[in-house]
Each structure stands twice: as C-alpha cells, then as structure tokens.
Amino acid sequence: MSTKPFIMSMDEFKCFHSIDRSLYSILVNELVRDPIEAIQIMALWIWLEKAGFKNVVFKIMPLPHILINELADEAVTCLKCINDTQFCSMVLGGEITLTQNFMKEDISLQFFQDYRVDALRGIAKVLNEVCLNALTDIMNISLKRNVTPPLVQGQMVMPPSNQPFQQNPNQIIKVGQYSHSRPQVNEISPENRTMFVTFSKGYPVTEYEVREFFTKFFGDCIESLYMQDVKADEQALFAKIVFNNPLFLDIVLKGMSKAKFNINGKHVWMRKFVPKNVDVNPSNNSPLPINNLPK
C-alpha cells in the first residue's frame, strides 16, 4: 500500500523554518550583513546540521549579536575555503576558533577541504531547496535597501535585482517522500532566465563541463542548455543556458553586464541573453545570431 506524500503549503514551509528565518533576519537586519552572503551562510549552517552537527541554528540564535557576527565571519572563511582550493591552501593553517568552541566537535578548515565536494553539493542543495524557498522574501526586502552589496572574493554572490524573484504564496511543496516544486517559470519568460555564454577560440569547452560548472554550485538549476551547432571537428564558440530560476542570472553576473569565469583552465564569458529578433523559446534550437556575441 503506497503512502501519500504529506503536502505542505509555502506558508507552512516558512513556518517550519521559522528559526532559520529568524536567524537570517538577525544577519541582514540587526547585523546589516549582505543579504546574499547571509543566505549562503545560512545554507552552510543548515548543511552542517544535515552533516551531523546537531542543532547549529538553534544554538546560534540566542547568542549575543556580536558573537553571531563573529561566527558569520568564520562561516564566510569556510565558504571561501569550499569554493576556492587556492584560498583554502593559503589559510589551511588558520583557525576557526569560535566555530570550533561553539560546535564542541571536531571541525576545522581541514574538514571543509577534506569534504569539499560533498560540501559544494550539499550547500547547493540546501540553497536551492530550503533557502530560496524559506528566505527569499526577507532577502528581497533587504536587497531593496542596498545599493551595492560587498563582493565576497572567491564566491559567486547575488547582487540586488531590479526585479526580485516573486514567489507564489500558494505554491505547494511536497514533504516526506518529498520534493520541492520549482517556481512557476511559465510566469517568467525564458528570455528573462537565459544566459549567453562565449568560449575562447582554441580552448574548447564541452556541454558537460558547462553543466558541471553550474550544478556543483547550485544543483539542479538548468532548464535547458544549447551549444552552438557545429561540425564534429569544429569548436562551439557560444552557448545559451535557460535557468529554471532568474535569480541564478544575478548570482553569476553579480550586478555586472558581463562576467568572466574559468572552467577547467579555460576562460568563459557570460552575460544575460538579449534577443535581437530571435525566438528564445527553449524548444527553439536554432543558432544565435553572430551579432549577439559580446564585443
């Protein structure tokens, strides 16, 4: 006999994560930390709970704000260590003393290096499935107060968006044998969720490499990806990515019109796709016009 999944509304989901919402509010409202950096800090702390460190958020909540702020600073160091192997090698001798004392368990920067791959995937999953659902409304209010958030070196961080993601309050989330439903992307046109990517000639990048680059940070974030249609012996010079959430455009671009990244040692440029009399419907696999290439 099959068991029906328990159905939780978005309001109930936020209520379930009320303590996470309260701590995030302290970070962005009381401590005036960057909302995007703060949401990644929350994702790290929630992931640590899932990794076996008990009641992390619950233990942090009653602390004096000055200690919460210090723990948040150490969390940023941990995130940098997870995201950037070069940074990790430089600070590996350093300590996260307050975090170690607070956890009362064996945790260090070496821990984040040893479990870097698991941390990347786990934090991305928490960010995607928990934080973007439970904290986005608080984040959007905070972003409206900010003009330019501080840039965290070595991390992909979101800037204020001119059109903050609006989540449907009646959206349903299945809990139990349980999966989060996606934002209703049919209400957001594909062209507002599309990234245009260009590659350096002589340094071919595969579709697999592009997908791996994004999914290791954000999990299941790509709705569709179209590489330039070329012959077997030719290199694709550009691609079009349609994300399932427009927030990922902001995360990648960090408020800039164009951003440069390194994928397996190869330079890649990314910008928001601006159609010029081109249908960007995901079902359309036609190549993009050459005049859409970044100059």
Question: Can you offer a commentary on this structure?
Answer:
The protein has helices spanning 10-16, 18-30, 35-50, 56-60, 65-83, 85-91, 97-103, 109-114, 116-134, 136-145, 207-218, 247-253; strands at residues 6-9, 172-175, 194-199, 222-227, 238-243, 258-263, 266-272. Strand 6 (258-263) and strand 7 (266-272) form a beta hairpin. The strands form two sheets. A five-stranded antiparallel β-sheet has the order 4-5-3-7-6. Strands 1-2 form a two-stranded antiparallel ribbon. The chain is of the alpha+beta class and 295 residues long. The chain has two domains: 7-145, no CATH class; 187-285, RRM (RNA recognition motif) domain (Alpha-Beta Plaits). It is globular, with a radius of gyration of 20 Å. The protein has twelve helices and seven strands. This is RRM domain-containing protein. It comes from Lithospermum erythrorhizon (Purple gromwell).
Low-confidence stretches: 147-186, 278-295
Share of helix among residues? Answer: 40-55%
Query: How many domains in all?
Result: 2
Shape: globular
Rg: 20 Å
Q: Quick one: how many beta strands?
A: 7
Protein name: RRM domain-containing protein
